[in-house]
């Protein structure tokens, strides 16, 4: 009560009369004296009632006091949340599969050829969405027909994709549109769902479309640590693409830090990075998984396969590390970063150095979906 009245007095001191200020200050002084003297409960109750009476008489009431309090609490919550996001922990969604299997982007799987698949019930699908971030899509054919054409992929509200399939039943008749709503981030995921193939036939009772999409990992980015030290080799960092030629601007990317200022970075035929000629391997901190692959096995996408000189699916970009003799020399204030999924990662092998000032923070904690990657400690 005393603190509340003191707060109101401080807020209104410049608009209250000297008589009002004096009366409220006197009541506050009496309350302080009662508290300091360890007065009994009855005396304190009497003093509180007197303080409330004087405050009610002299303090000006605020219009819509309840609304005012709620708005104040709301604004304080926003400021606190923005402060945490700006200086401590920032939410981030993995946009692509370039860090798989360490961190996953959106993954889509076509289920039409899976004879054991059964669509979960409503509560099962709801649990999959809330816990695992998995959404199922299925359209069962009411009769024989053919998908005659596919409409373009349309982006809605920046985070939803829509595609229309035009089907013809019975081999004749009008074309009927079927709309698929989904959230993959790129065309490749739609292709994995079978939505970018050419026309195909279907039979009654069979799925025209049946696929599941699993959202990319959502994690917190530690924005605090790098205020006190520089990033170290092997850490997974999040950065802005602003000013980096050859990639989409003003986006957030996530990669593993490979090269530090002053390093000469190259890649050997054995799929291991060399730093000034020194080979990185599974004994190097943060590279236990990246270089834990079987050297006799062929590289595979979304599996730990080391670092490749020329990923097969990005030949048109022109790697800066085409042969083991090629090297990128890292300038002061810059880094070299690679994705763990080097068969499908657009990284420093193509666009070169990353300015240190673009670094936002490092991967800290995967908070959704609930999977084997949930928690901290992704290496």
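^ Assign residues to that structure.
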């Amino acid at each position: 009560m005393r603190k509340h009245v003191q707060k109101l007095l401080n807020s209104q001191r410049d608009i209250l009369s000297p008589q009002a200020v004096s009366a409220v200050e006197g009541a506050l002084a009496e309350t302080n004296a009662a508290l300091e003297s360890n007065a009994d409960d009855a005396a304190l109750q009497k003093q509180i009632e007197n303080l409330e009476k004087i405050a009610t008489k002299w303090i000006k009431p605020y219009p819509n006091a309840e609304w005012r309090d709620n708005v104040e609490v709301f604004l304080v919550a926003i400021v606190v949340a923005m402060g945490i996001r700006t200086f401590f922990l920032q939410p981030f969604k993995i946009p692509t599969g370039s860090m798989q299997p360490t961190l996953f982007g959106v993954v889509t799987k076509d289920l039409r050829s899976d004879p054991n698949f059964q669509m979960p019930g409503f509560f099962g699908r709801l649990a999959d969405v809330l816990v695992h971030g998995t959404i199922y899509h299925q359209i069962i054919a009411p009769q024989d027909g053919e998908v005659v054409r596919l409409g373009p992929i349309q982006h809605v509200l920046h985070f939803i994709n829509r595609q229309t399939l035009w089907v013809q039943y019975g081999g004749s008749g009008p074309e009927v549109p079927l709309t698929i709503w989904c959230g993959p981030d790129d065309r490749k995921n739609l292709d994995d769902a079978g939505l970018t193939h050419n026309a195909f036939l279907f039979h009654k009772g069979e799925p025209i479309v049946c696929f599941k999409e699993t959202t990319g990992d959502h994690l917190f980015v530690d924005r605090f640590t790098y205020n006190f030290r520089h990033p170290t080799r092997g850490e997974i960092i999040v950065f802005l693409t602003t000013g980096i030629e050859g990639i989409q601007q003003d986006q957030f990317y996530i990669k593993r830090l490979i090269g530090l200022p002053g390093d000469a970075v190259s890649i050997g035929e054995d799929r291991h990075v060399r730093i000034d000629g020194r080979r990185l391997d599974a004994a190097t901190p943060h590279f236990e998984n990246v270089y834990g692959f079987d050297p006799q096995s062929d590289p595979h996408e979304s599996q730990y396969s080391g670092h490749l000189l020329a990923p097969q699916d990005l030949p048109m970009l022109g790697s800066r590390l085409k042969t083991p003799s090629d090297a990128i020399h890292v300038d002061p204030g810059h880094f070299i970063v690679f994705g763990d999924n080097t068969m499908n990662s657009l990284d420093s092998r193509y666009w070169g150095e990353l300015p240190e000032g673009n670094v936002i923070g490092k991967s800290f904690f995967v908070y959704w979906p609930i999977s084997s990657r949930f928690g901290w400690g992704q290496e």
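Residues 218-368 form a domain with the Umud Fragment, subunit A fold (CATH 2.10.109.10).
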